[in-house]
Write a structure and sequence with these properties.
Length: 787
């Protein structure tokens, strides 16, 4: 629902008038569900869009909808709908179809004369395939009752919306830039973003550190919204840490005149009030959580309280209000999002199949009036691959609590069949089986197609588990099934997306059998999602090469790119490459003494804090040991595998702003300390990057390489070179964080001397120097710090 300042009408779709949601949680599947293709086959009816203007309770509405199958016989309109259902036949056809029928019967105009209408519901039983046909004749008065009942329910909200739009939008359109001066590159970024929004394009912006990316995308987006061109801005992030920055920028724009509401959506796991009881992989079950089935009045009161108090909603305010009103904080944030214009959330809420906000992004009536601002977009490809990949293991089906007591039941039978299906897949690996010393089997099988009927036993099992988990007052012992249910749901959801850009992978490890569905290429998935919104800006300090990111992130024909220069004085950065050392796996041992010598040379110009990045933990640990042995007076800090949040913070805290100590952190390139950390000023004055950052060679990456080759792309570069260079650029970007910072970047690998790598260097590295001796490097570094 939105207020259109041009028509001065509240626009609402039939989907919004009659939501199909079966549960409050957006992850619960909708039932019943329509399928337009089947409808045409069964009825011969064709889709028709309908638009209906009506005044109600002092508000001018424009109701829009799309009837999927409309035919006309002898002056009577027949509107058909297809439903998948095993029950609830009495409530079909549903109000959605009745409202469409009403609008069609009035010819899209409340003053037009009535045309007779017939409503046909086709109900398909998904288990048996049986089709039932229900045809109902309705009078104009009967349909009007249904329609007006639905519209009246929205009246209060519509009044608030229209009033708020009249008060708020002009301020957002006229918002002033919240800083006294523009930084270099900021104006270009803002202008290009605004024009991309207007043109409905997908803009990819490489904006080096210091440009002020957050406000540079948010400012034009707010103006665009203020001018009535969109309803919501989704600021999407890869990490929680960047959400605070977006929230702060929205606050600055609020103070500068854009009185918009901003909300941070926090992951369920982080705001759940039942954290001690509900494990992260459990769905919300009424039998376990008292907030999983709370009355709507409580929720409305909690939303009302928050809206009356403030315009910015962070996790603290939401959790506190949820506790006070006894509602689920996560659900509260979803409800609140309906009243907010700027929504800051993780990528998951826009793209992940089980988590995305269906209320915004699964509207069957077409694209929503939303724009996406996608921060740190270099992470999105791998994150999407993760979201659309899933795995099941034979051990998931064994030793489930409470199963012994239900022997002989349908559930027990379905569980046995699913487990047998998984075990049966072992035979796919028989050609490549090997045996370890204990005589256990190991092997794998990879295919670009799914085995016939892979999903059916898992679907049957899901159907058996589902009612046990979600019925109110469910026996808490069934909670033991929850993790398996969650895994099955994810696996089946991913299977539904399977196409030529996916891979089926089965592996045997001793007694265990694993089956995985892997997404190789996220571009189509992302493009489909982007088609459901108006425009998007993907931005990051490192999107090199821009065309590669546009390709893998679904830019397609709507893509546009912008590369901005660094706003900082390039002479503040000493950037050098060592051209005569190979860091390839087979050469590492031999190259280690020379690498240590170059690290020492890089440090010799000034005491302070440095980080040396390595391609693997193993190599890093050997290098750290060799370095410490040779330079015992230098303080050495070493990244450990699986560090907790506290350990990571302590590691970074050790990089203190002082010059009296020589300190080197040994870290892994592509790990937690190579991006997303901010050590300004003298907390970090140099980085040494050993290698070209490529992901380790693996079956999966090789398959990805082959996939892209088959699709006329440079497969090796897509699977290895470009992701690697992105890691390098991210790590290098840790050094200069403000216009007063100075520091060094040293790249150690002979591949940096090749034209391919030189072409990927950013513009502010144009003064890069190449060295073949530690002594020459030492002299140059000393000169740099003197200068
Ligand atoms: S509070 Fe209850 S409903 Fe909300 S996330 Fe936690 S378990 Fe789910």
């Amino acid at each position: 629902m939105r207020y259109n300042p041009k028509t001065r009408r509240v626009e609402i779709s039939v989907g919004e008038l009659c939501p199909r949601k079966a549960g409050r949680d957006d992850s619960v599947a909708d039932i019943p569900e329509a399928d337009p293709k089947r409808l045409f086959e069964l009825t011969g009816g064709v889709p028709r869009n309908v638009l209906f203007d009506i005044s109600c309770g002092g508000v001018d509405f424009r109701v829009t909808g799309r009837a999927e199958a409309v035919s006309e016989v002898g002056g009577t309109i027949r509107v058909s709908g297809l439903y998948f259902s095993r029950e609830n036949l009495s409530r079909l056809p549903d109000d959605r179809l009745l409202c469409l029928a009403y609008m069609l019967s009035r010819g899209g105009n409340s003053d037009a004369s009535w045309q007779p209408v017939e409503i046909e519901a086709l109900i398909l039983n998904p288990d048996t395939g049986a089709l039932e046909r229900v045809v109902k004749q309705k009078t104009a008065a009967e349909l009007e009752v249904v329609f007006m009942r639905r519209l009246t329910k929205k009246l209060g909200e519509a009044k608030v919306l229209a009033e708020r739009a009249r008060l708020v939008l002009p301020g957002a359109a006229a918002v002033r830039f919240p800083y006294p001066r523009l930084r270099q590159g900021q104006e270009a970024m803002m202008r290009t973003c605004y024009s991309a929004f207007c043109g409905g394009r997908r803009l990819f912006v490489q904006a080096p550190t210091g440009i002020g990316k957050t406000v540079s995308v948010l400012y034009p987006a707010v103006k665009f919204l203020g001018n009535g061109h969109c309803d919501k801005i989704f600021y999407l992030t890869a990490k929680t840490s960047t959400q605070a920055e977006a929230y702060r920028a929205a606050g600055l724009l609020f103070s500068a005149g854009a009185r918009l509401r901003t909300l941070i959506i926090t992951a369920k796991e982080n705001c759940c009030l039942c954290r001690g009881i509900r494990a992260p992989d459990m769905p919300c079950m009424p039998g376990i959580c008292p907030y999983a089935d709370m009355p709507n009045e409580k929720m409305a009161a909690a939303v009302g309280r928050l809206l009356g108090l403030q315009s910015g909603f962070g996790p603290k305010a939401i959790i506190a209000t949820a506790k006070e009103f006894g509602v689920c904080p996560y659900e509260l944030s979803l409800e609140l999002s309906e009243h907010c214009e700027i929504i800051v959330a993780d990528y998951n809420y826009a793209f992940a199949p089980l988590v995305k906000l269906k209320r915004y992004f699964d509207n069957p009536e077409g694209a929503g009036r939303y724009i996406f601002l996608i921060d740190e977009a270099h992470n999105l490809a791998d994150r999407t691959r993760e979201m659309y990949s899933a795995e099941l293991c034979s051990s998931d089906f064994a030793g489930l609590p409470g199963m012994a007591s239900c022997e002989g039941s349908e559930l027990h039978k379905a569980l046995g069949e699913a487990a047998a299906r998984l075990r049966g897949l072992r035979r796919l690996c028989r050609k490549d089986l090997t045996y370890d010393e204990a005589g256990l089997e190991h092997g794998f099988y990879i295919a670009r197609e799914l085995p016939e009927g892979l999903d059916s036993p898992f679907r049957d099992l899901c159907r058996e588990i589902e009612p046990r988990l979600f019925k109110t007052g469910a026996d808490p012992t069934t909670a033991g099934l929850a993790p398996l249910y969650r895994k099955l749901l994810r696996f089946l959801t991913v299977i539904d997306c399977f196409d030529e850009s996916f891979l089926f992978f089965c592996r045997v490890e001793g007694k265990k059998t694993f089956v995985s569905i892997m997404c190789l290429d996220p571009s189509e998935i992302l493009a489909r999602q982007l088609d459901r919104i108006q425009a998007a800006v993907f931005f990051s300090a490192t999107l090199t090469p821009l065309d590669y990111f546009s390709d893998i992130l679904g830019g397609g024909e709507k893509s546009e790119t912008l590369a901005l220069a660094s706003p900082f004085d390039i002479t503040h950065l000493f950037v050098a490459a060592v051209d005569n050392i190979s860091t390839r796996y087979e050469d590492r041992e031999k190259s280690l003494p020379a690498i240590i010598a170059y690290i020492a040379a890089a440090l010799s110009g000034r005491k302070g804090n440095y980080i040396a990045y390595f391609p693997s933990y193993e190599f890093m640990e050997r290098a750290a040991a060799a370095f410490s042995a040779k330079y015992p007076r230098v303080e050495v800090l070493i990244q450990k595998k699986g560090m907790s949040r506290e350990e990571k913070e302590a590691f970074l805290d050790a990089f203190r702003a002082e010059d009296s100590k020589m300190r080197v952190g040994f870290c892994v390139l592509g790990g937690s300390f190579s991006e997303g950390i901010d050590l300004p000023g003298s907390r970090l004055i140099g980085v040494i990057i050993v290698g070209v950052g490529m992901p380790g060679i693996s079956n999966e990456r090789n398959i990805m390489r082959d996939y892209y080759e088959q699709n006329q792309r440079p497969g090796f570069d897509y699977a290895y070179t470009y992701p690697g260079m992105n890691n390098v650029l991210q790590a290098a970007g840790r050094v200069i964080r403000s216009e007063t910072d100075r520091g060094i970047v040293l790249l150690i690998d002979d591949r940096y001397a090749t034209p391919k790598y030189a072409a990927m260097f950013p513009e502010h590295w144009r003064h890069i120097r190449h060295f073949t001796s530690p002594l020459a490097l030492r002299a140059a570094v000393i000169d740099f710090w003197k200068g």
